[in-house]
Specification:
398 residues, Monooxygenase, F-box domain-containing protein, 19 helices, elongated, 3-stranded antiparallel β-sheet, F-box_dom, F-box-like_dom_sf, mainly alpha
């Protein structure tokens, strides 16, 4: 039976000992939650000045996440008065300047947000489309963007001159697809510019001024796009090198731990592993190795090594044999060049060379585990010189 909770008992004091003994137990009302302050109230109850001062030390990515936690935080961080918070946060964390055509929260979302800017699909193009200030999935790329090749078709009811005017003041970006690429525009921006030009009379001063200002804005946007792409490329490279260093350090630590346990280099070689053993899956993680994780993966790695010892020795033996033959061949070729006048060496076929007992013995020593050094090559070299001398003597006698 499930044990009952203990009940705090109070008695009604009537001055009568009998009534005290017969008093009915009464649960004392307690409110445990009232003694604890909700975590959200720590933020919502905070003065805006204090909240703003603390928020400056968060990264723009953290500010985005904070703004999505409650209406109160969103009201503060998405207001125009919070611009200083975003600017200080951006500069503190070494981010590039915010483009003039978007605000600070939009800029932070462009850099750190996830999902398509239009449909919120999780899978998007590899990098943000900085030229258009969006992240886009393949579906929205087809429906929301228009390429420079298709722009004329999209504006088929307009003259070539108008199409040229529109394309000259629109922000654009290059998007590559395989070996091919094209410039793309936002259809919404194309439609906005199209409506503006329709409202302005041809050859009017207002139209000329609109086109001049539009071209200036486009050039300014292009300049900020180039800076953003350079910064993003540098950031990606730094992340790639950091990831590589983490992987190398993790792998080296795992290998060192296994060697301490007595395993050889061949035990740790996965070139002939079955894919189902998942050796690389365990090694290639994007985080440093901890003692707790080592305790979890050590039995798995030892199990894979036991499978490797059971199934791969013949393959490793053949691999070592090929290595020894390669070492032997390089020395044989060099020796043949030195004795270029020897007709016997020139006529010596490879299959005959590999059948010489001294060559076989050198290659197969200790199951092909001993490298062919200059010192170990000397007996073979001596044998070849003797064979060449015997050949010359037989030629003279013959």
């Amino acid at each position: 039976m499930r044990p009952q909770k203990r009940v705090k008992v109070t008695h009604v004091d009537t001055g009568d000992t009998t009534s005290k003994a017969m008093a009915t137990p009464v649960k004392q009302a307690t409110n445990r939650r009232s003694s604890k302050v909700k975590k959200s109230e720590l933020v919502t109850g905070m003065p805006n000045e204090v909240f703003a001062e603390i928020a400056k030390y968060l990264s723009p990515c953290d500010l985005l996440q904070l703004a999505r936690t409650s209406k109160h935080c969103r009201g503060i961080l998405m207001s125009k008065t919070s611009r200083r918070i975003w600017e200080v946060s951006r500069k503190t964390h070494g981010l590039p300047d915010c483009p003039t055509d978007i605000n600070e929260p939009q800029f932070a979302d462009l850099l750190f947000g996830k999902g398509c800017s239009f449909c919120l699909a999780s899978r998007t193009l590899k990098d943000p489309v900085f030229g258009l200030r969006v992240r886009v999935c393949s579906s929205c790329k087809a429906s929301r963007l228009v390429s420079s090749t298709d722009l004329r078709k999209y504006l088929q009811h307009f003259s070539y001159t108008v199409v040229e005017e529109i394309s000259n003041i629109l922000s654009y970006t290059m998007i590559s697809s395989g070996k091919n690429g094209d410039y793309f525009y936002l259809k919404s921006q194309v439609d906005d510019v199209k409506q503006e030009l329709q409202a302005l009379p041809p050859n009017s001063d207002e139209r000329r001024l609109y086109l001049i200002e539009g071209k200036k804005a486009m050039r300014a946007a292009l300049g900020s796009t180039i800076k953003l792409e350079l910064w993003y490329s540098s950031k990606r490279s730094a992340e790639m090198f950091t990831k590589r260093d983490i992987l190398q350090e993790r792998r080296a630590k795992i290998m060192d731990n296994l060697k301490i346990l007595g395993f050889s280099d061949e035990d740790l070689d996965d070139k002939f592993d079955n894919k189902e053993w998942k050796w690389q899956y365990i090694l290639k993680k994007n985080h440093p190795l901890t003692e707790k994780e080592w305790g979890a993966i050590e039995p798995k790695l030892i199990q894979i090594i036991e499978l490797r010892r059971e199934h791969t020795p013949p393959k490793f033996h053949e691999h070592r044999r090929l290595e020894r033959k390669t070492e032997m061949r390089s020395r044989f070729v060099w020796f043949r060049i030195r004795l270029a006048k020897s007709t016997w060496l020139k006529q010596l076929r490879d299959e005959v060379f590999w059948d010489f007992p001294c060559v076989k013995e050198l290659i197969e020593e200790n199951e092909c585990r001993v490298p062919v050094t200059d010192e170990r090559w000397l007996p073979v070299q001596k044998f070849l010189v003797e064979m060449d001398s015997d050949h010359l003597e037989r030629e003279k006698k013959g």
